[in-house]
Amino acid sequence: MDNKSLTTGGFTLPGEAGYEELTLQLAKKWGADVIRDSDGTRLSEAITTSGYEIYSTLCLIRADNEWAKAHPDKVQQCCIMSQPVVAGSDGVTIDLLNGYFWKQFRINSDDDPHEWWQVFDRTTGEEIATKDWTYDPAVGVVEIVNARKWHLYTVNFFCYRIWEEISMYNHVTNDWGDREHLMPIDPIHPEAQERILAYLETWLDEHPNTSVVRLTSMFYNFWWFWGEHPKRRFVVNDWGSYEFTVSPPAIRKFEEKNGYRMKSEDFVNAGLYNTSYKVPSAKYRDWMDFINAFVADFGRKCVDLIHARGKKAFVFYNDHWIGLEPWGDRFKDIGLDGIIDGIFSGFETRKVSGTKHVQVRELRLHPYLFPTGVNGAPSFLEGGNPTLECKTYWIDIRRALLREPVDRMGFGGYLHLVCNHPDFIDYIEHLAQEFRMLRSLHDGDSPYTADLEVAILTAWGQMRAWGCCGHYNRGNYYNEVMESISGLPVRVRFISFEDILAGGIPAGIQVVINAGTVDDAWSGGEYWANPKIIEAISGLVNSGGGFIGVGEPSALRHGCQYFQLAQLLGVDREVGLTRAFNRFQFDLAENPQFILEDLESDPDFGADAGNIYVLDQKTQVLAAMGRSPMITFKNFGEGRTVYLSGHKYTPENVRLLHRAIFFAARAEERFGTWLPSNVRTEAAYYPGHRKLVVVNNSPELQKTDISLPGGTSIHVDVEGYGCRILEV
Amino acid sequence: MDNKSLTTGGFTLPGEAGYEELTLQLAKKWGADVIRDSDGTRLSEAITTSGYEIYSTLCLIRADNEWAKAHPDKVQQCCIMSQPVVAGSDGVTIDLLNGYFWKQFRINSDDDPHEWWQVFDRTTGEEIATKDWTYDPAVGVVEIVNARKWHLYTVNFFCYRIWEEISMYNHVTNDWGDREHLMPIDPIHPEAQERILAYLETWLDEHPNTSVVRLTSMFYNFWWFWGEHPKRRFVVNDWGSYEFTVSPPAIRKFEEKNGYRMKSEDFVNAGLYNTSYKVPSAKYRDWMDFINAFVADFGRKCVDLIHARGKKAFVFYNDHWIGLEPWGDRFKDIGLDGIIDGIFSGFETRKVSGTKHVQVRELRLHPYLFPTGVNGAPSFLEGGNPTLECKTYWIDIRRALLREPVDRMGFGGYLHLVCNHPDFIDYIEHLAQEFRMLRSLHDGDSPYTADLEVAILTAWGQMRAWGCCGHYNRGNYYNEVMESISGLPVRVRFISFEDILAGGIPAGIQVVINAGTVDDAWSGGEYWANPKIIEAISGLVNSGGGFIGVGEPSALRHGCQYFQLAQLLGVDREVGLTRAFNRFQFDLAENPQFILEDLESDPDFGADAGNIYVLDQKTQVLAAMGRSPMITFKNFGEGRTVYLSGHKYTPENVRLLHRAIFFAARAEERFGTWLPSNVRTEAAYYPGHRKLVVVNNSPELQKTDISLPGGTSIHVDVEGYGCRILEV
């Protein structure tokens, strides 16, 4: 740790042509070493030659709109299910794009609708024979004959996406008026690949001062259908779904490789599509694998060009990230130098900090320097408070950074927007210094971490480690747990049901957590009908491991229970058909309980699963809401299970989860090292540096005692949002 | 109406030997015309010859315990699923009665277990081959070999029921010590039939003063498994289930008649059994029909004997009522003269008052004269307040009696318990007079009822009209709606999905209500996948009818929606897999809305379905909880739908439902006749008598204005719990 590194470096500033003075002034104040452009801004030569490293954003698939316009059939596509229409007679007219934003889509009838589309009677679930429907391209309408009155009909159809979504979002958000709509071209076409590579060559020629090509991102955006009605501006928005990779050409290539053809309904799934919430089918996993292989392969070609010019290639872990899968096996093959993500929270921080096979991991913090935040906050508008916004995100990010560092931080957007917010300008200077200080603690050192490995079990597993459906998933049990655990001093990994089926529970795992809602990908859905899963987890717990279920763990309507691990958990959930059953009347466990020790009041999980009941006296109930237990545990064999009827990321619940993990692992005796007495504070100890970091996750001053090895403790006062570093 | 009938008659008093003076004194004070005995009490000759009509209780199947003891294989049975056991190795030992009350059951191994029982691996759902399990009758244990470790195993086995449940309940509740346990004999055996008829003949000889034989009831009790552990005294309790009719002999007879054999699993259904909440399968409906035919047939033989002695036969619509189905087609064939039910509420009142083919309908009110009520209330114990208990039940019963009368009321139990409650004695005198007064209003007259027919659609239909799972089902959408509607001035009927499949929606119905939870019998479960149901209801609404959905109406995971009538309702419910979807952002409808007009505050439905979203702008939202609509409507064709996210029986919600019915029927203009302004009061007008009854359903004095035809209104003050009768 040298002092210089604490005031300068690891900071990416968004520059802005026309604001050269501001750019350089803030670059100095904030200790930037890199200046970047953003979507909507550009850098002038005064900036690019100012001696700073330059990141230049480049979105290859929307970079050459002339080519896109000249090749309308090479534009990216997707498959859409029309909004359901009720048959009022034996003829039904379906206006395909009704409800969808017509500026986003152009119906694709280049690929024969009768070959590629499917029409369904959703009331019966039957597909309508092609002879019974026709498409009229003049009006974008499907006419169905021989319909059954009052049945519901939908059409799965293919569309070109004629306005690249991120560009559309920025355009609309910032009122770009008649600026041309950019279109995304699809590199699945060899002609598009050729064009992208040629464009990249030229672009590299034209950007001699660029040190890092900041790819935003690779080729396929996350799924984002927009709506026509102002009251439904967005129809669906899923950070993890591959819907925007789907097109007849891609399906043909998939068929060549995999030997079978995906149908439109494999993607549409009666309107559920393949969201992150849905347990991925085997076919869909094949599709993802196919796209991932393609992205890695063509991505490598782009990166090689960049490297050939002596520049580095960083990728944005967002926007067009689909197919990249940075936690997957092929990511290393692409050869990227760095990864950057725009994040709000601890779990997203861990997603970046844990990415392997890159030299640089960078966080782009929020608020983005746009008038309005992506969460709708009036960040830099009248009434906005960007400093407070930033602080509230930072306390969640910081606790994750205490566990695992990243290399850089930065911002994006229109720099000039900060001018009216001098407190923001000062705060970012402070934040950047704190960031560098925390980063420096990881130099040649690692924070104290309990010798305890926790696995979060989902249908996605490591592929979507520290990911969910997007930025905001509050109230989702899995996401809340992930956020809480992102700052805990335990080892965390993500495993999938397929992992267990392939090789059992990986060695070393002491506690498995399953947190979700029935049928969702986080809980696991149909996987719970597979005896191998039951056997593996029962075996783990029986031999001394722990299992923590949150919300509806192992839930499935199957067999004689709803929680398929009810026999381990000792609780189950009543979901409507067993109300005639009387339930075991539990008493709250009498002895003070390890798990609850730091709770100041009754536990509050926010959304509570409810209607939980205990099976018998072997289940200990620690807390309940009326007659529905909230926190229970049960000994099973040599191990233990804990059930939590919900989880909400709050200081008290973070501690509760921390304790529950140790309790489930029967590791209570090992609990408490470097633990603050005050749950609004957290601590991390770096033994190599002999430094103890104590952070305050609240706006108010907090007094706290940190337990030291040997049984003593040290008292610290930490100001609101503050961070204290002590030599111990 | 003559005055005498207002002070005497229509009242059944429970007499008690040893308290002759009290019996006759209260008979006079309360205006009784009948004295009865109860389970646990008997009448002395001083009472039976006192000039009052005498009801004598008789439970034929537990009447002759000597015969039962001599014929242990003729005792009633049931099929039980053992509590699930986890295999810790490849051998599993299942103690069959573990968790169940051993005094209630004796395992039946007279009928070969390997022929009749079934053992399941509930983890895989597979049945275990008989070669892999053995039963040891010495210890009541099944041993399974070749088990799969960590799988869950259960045994379906048959038991004799060696302690008749109602008798057991009374025995335990009243501490009857070493009084002999009575056993229920099964009339499915011809020998038992013979014995019952012979016993009845003798009994009739021995009861010359008895005018009415009060059968308690026929042959089979509702389902009631007791538990071993004091914390789970009852395992399950379902007023409507046929589980206690099940035995190998009955299954053999069923097979002779129906040509196929029911298996144990047809009854056990992986531990769900066939509760009232479960949509009845075709097989189970066959079974009910078989038992119903048997009960009607043998019941007729018993009734004929009673009639032959010039006595009347009344039946208790509870306890051993299974197979009787008073709302079914065969009930008339039995020839019963009267029906009596112990009730707490309005819906139960309508169940009795609407029973056809009997001359006398009688309510047995609560509290029962037992120290403790069946709801656990300390009725006549220290701390009990039987007067208040009775009042709170009475206001719910009374509003139903305003719509449809019964002939009699009464009490049961130990009369002497009232001695310490002089206020109760006075209150019952008052209540009996009020009862007679209200009854008299129906003489030659009917209350004003709107020309509007409402059908409640469930999987049970008319067979279980005004019935649910038992007395207490608070929080159950269907039950709450039924309770509210039991006092409304509209015509109500109950229809089943099978009715619709057989003949469409019966003519005359203007509004259909579906209130329930996904997969339950009240909502309809799999029936909603049947297009004929969708077609019928869509057609009704399209041509001007109304549909009201409450909670999870038409819910099923099927097709492209969760509510299968989402296209009519304009709302659907998010249940976990579509969280990535953005929803139409509704505003609350601006104009004052007919449905909400009498609400004094925000609607409160108690349990709210939650996670409701509107499909588009065609749905009008009248009230919402956060972003989840609570009350919506939508025009569809000529008709209209209303969605309510829950319902709780409260004065405000009764009015809300009342208005919703008229609104759905587009009959707003006809609304308001004889309507009180104050929702805590209700009114009924009897045009023949020109009498207007205004009741106060609250403990406090209420001021209210009743709208009269012609647009005027009349003001009335009604004391708490009170009733005013006005000449209009």
Oligomerization: homodimer
**Low-pLDDT stretches of chain A:** none
Largest sheet of chain A: 8 strands, parallel, barrel
**Relative helix content of chain A:** 25-40%
Class by helix and strand content of chain A? alpha/beta
Strand order of the largest sheet of chain A: 1-2-3-13-16-17-18-19
Q: How many E-type strands of chain A?
A: 35
H/I helix tally of chain A: 19
Shape of chain A: globular
Query: Which chains share the greatest interface?
Result: A-B, 70 and 69 residues
The radius of gyration of chain A is 27 Å
Estimate the strand proportion of chain A. Answer: 15-25%
Distance between the termini of chain A: 17 Å
Question: What do the pLDDT scores of chain A average to?
Answer: 95
Give a description of the structure.
The structure is a homodimer of 728-residue chains. By secondary structure, chain A is α/β, with parallel strands linked by helices. Helices cover 27% and strands 23% of the residues of chain A. Chain A is built from 19 helices and 35 strands. Chain A has an 8-stranded parallel beta barrel, surrounded by 4 helices. A 7-stranded mixed beta sheet of chain A has the order 21-20-22-23-30-29-28, sandwiched between helices. In chain A, helix 7 (190-206) packs parallel to helix 10 (282-308) and helix 13 packs parallel to helix 14 (422-441). Chain A is globular and about 75 Å long. The mean pLDDT of chain A is 95. Chains A and B meet through strand 15 and helix 17 of A and strand 15 and helix 17 of B.
